[in-house]
């Protein structure tokens, strides 16, 4: 679906030169991202913890927060809400990965301070 969406946009924009290629990149990429994230969530790409962590991370982007919310978060939440596969295959190693990240952060702090 993502490829078909981009192909449709390209038929109208691309003229075979560098400028239209750059324009296509920005025009094609931004509108296609919500479509991609909706379908990614629809086919079970997010579990509850992963989606919550991504939403939390989106709060760190500063002035682009509204853009990220529209392009990324809203389609992902909508796709997850209507998906029969949402949270069906949660990432079970998340606690171990978070513990490893915490330990690595502590080691980094020790190196910086020492």
Write up what this structure looks like:
There is one protein chain. This protein has 114 residues and is mainly alpha-helical. The protein has one domain. It is built from five helices and no strands. Helix 1 packs antiparallel against helix 2 (18-42). The longest helix has 25 residues, at 18-42.
> What fraction of residues sit in β-strands?
under 5%
Summarize the main sheet: none
- Give the count of structural domains: 1
| Helical fraction | over 70%
Number of DSSP helices? 5
Topology:
Layout: H1 2-13, H2 18-42, H3 48-58, H4 65-82, H5 94-113
Helix pairs in contact: 1-2, 2-4, 3-4
Précis, in short:
The protein has 5 helices and no strands. It is mostly helical and 114 residues long.
What are its keywords?
114 residues, mainly alpha, 5 helices
């Amino acid at each position: 679906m993502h490829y078909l969406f981009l192909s449709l946009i390209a038929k109208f924009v691309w003229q075979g030169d560098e400028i239209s290629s750059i324009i296509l990149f920005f025009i094609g990429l931004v509108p296609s991202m919500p479509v991609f994230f909706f379908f990614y969530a629809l086919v079970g790409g997010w579990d509850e913890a992963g989606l919550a962590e991504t939403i939390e991370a989106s709060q760190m982007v500063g002035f682009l927060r509204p853009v990220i919310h529209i392009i990324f978060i809203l389609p992902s939440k909508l796709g997850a809400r209507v998906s029969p596969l949402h949270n069906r295959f949660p990432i079970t190693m998340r606690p171990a990965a978070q513990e490893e990240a915490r330990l690595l952060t502590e080691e980094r702090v020790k190196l910086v301070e020492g």
